[in-house]
Amino acid sequence: MESISPIIEAIREAEKGTTGEIRVHLSQKWCEPDPYKRACRIFEQYQMSKTIFRNAVLIYVNLRRRKFAIVGDFAIHDAVGQIYWKNLAKELEENLRSTQSEKAISLAVLSLGKVIKEHFSIESKLS
Amino acid sequence: MLAGCKSSQVAKPATIPSAPQYYVLDESKVLNSRALKSLESLLIEHDRLTGEEFLIGIFKQLGNADVKARTHQIFQKWFQGKRGQENGILLAIFVKEQISKIETGYGLSSIITEDKIKELSRSIRIINSENNLGETILHILETLNSPLIQSGKAEELLQYSGLLTSSQSQDLPSSEIIFPQKGWGALFLLGVVAFFVTLTHLLSREAHFTRTGWYRPSLWALIKHFRKLRHSKNNELGGASGSW
Q1: Which terminus of chain A, N or C, has fewer Cβ atoms within 10 Å?
Q2: What is the DSSP string of A9-41?
Q3: In this complex, which of A7, A30, A71 lies closest to B239 when CB atoms are compared?
Q4: Is the pLDDT at B240 greater than 60, yes or no?
């Protein structure tokens, strides 16, 4: 496993001032037929659908098989739409091709954080 | 009066060991493990096929006892209350004195007569030639019309054990009498290794990151949620996937 602190820092930065929850799951499994299916399972396994605002997002990356998936709960999916996920996936793919994996993941997390802040900021919930 | 008399010391009779569980007692350890196991297999199989219990006792020494009396005592102890009293046969060998004796149950005395016993006993010379022990056992089995003689398995086993020399090679016989258990042990070991490799593979190649830090998934958590994961399908999720 490569250096991890940039990812944790990115998560903290992205979640700051929001009600959202972002998690990243790295894997080196040899067998990975469907990363999205696996990501959904991990999403359930860590009970990420049990947040209050149903706005958790999981970024799953299989470093060995070079596959990834992004899974968002229904509230954030409702807010951003499927097109956003496809664009984010494309952005992540380009970053993974061009730079180191942890940096690419961090960028994706920060990008996600901006969208979450837009729709799920704490201030808007308090007002 | 007393001067001419030697004080007689009554020799304490040596205790008779218990009957061997696997038909051969090698008190003086003249047989190597291969020969011992082969003999045990042979005699167990002979008993299974014929109901005749053929026991061999190789003792360190006879001491001051008479060979016939001693052999009889051993026979009485080893076959006491057992079916061997009728169709048992004991081959007792005393290594130090290099003598032996055969005793049979009353059911076999007509088959292995006294003359036959004398003839067989004379042929045994354990120390000088293990070959003679193998031949003696072979002759006893022939006299008993053992099915193992007719099938050739007795000779094969005795050759494998090294107790019977032959011009032919002494490869491991394909007989099922030899304990074929090494394969299962290796298979079990392989299974254990495969299990741990799989477990290590499952547990050590994952990392989960949150705002508080990262950690490896626990096996208990995986097991606990396994059934839920198999049956639950959350259709409310959205997302996308890709590869690079």
Answers
A1: C
A2: HHHHHHHTTBS-EEEEEEE--S--S-HHHHHHH
A3: A71
A4: yes
Per-residue pLDDT reduced to its tens digit, B84-122: 667 888 999 888 887 888 888 877 777 777 777 777 666
d(CA B237, CA A36): 11
A2 close contact with B: CB closer than 8 A: no
Tell me the Cα Rg of chain A: 14
DSSP letters for A64-109:
TTTEEEEEE-HHHHHHH-HHHHHHHHHHHHHHHHHS-HHHHHHHHH
| A85 shares contact with chain B (CB less than 8 Å) | yes
How far, in whole angstroms, is CA B193 from its chain's centroid? Answer: 29
CA distance B243 to B228: 28
Tell me the CA distances in angstroms from B216 to A1, A27, B221, one per residue in order: 11, 10, 11
Residue that has been written with the tokens 């097991």 in this structure: B223
Min Cα separation B188/chain A (Å):
25
Does the CB of B206 have a partner CB in chain A at under 8 Å? yes
pTM: 0.47
- The residue of chain B nearest to residue A56, with distances taken between CA atoms, is B237
Distances from the Cα of A53 to the Cα of A11, A21, A119, B76, angstroms = 18, 10, 11, 89
Give residue A121's pLDDT band: very low, low, confident or very high (50, 70, 90): confident
Would strands B213-215 and B206-210 be described as parallel, antiparallel, or unpaired?
antiparallel
CB contact under 8 A, A72 and B239: yes
Q: What is the ipTM of this complex?
A: 0.90
**pLDDT per residue over B154-179, tens digit each?**
888 888 888 876 543 344 443 334 44
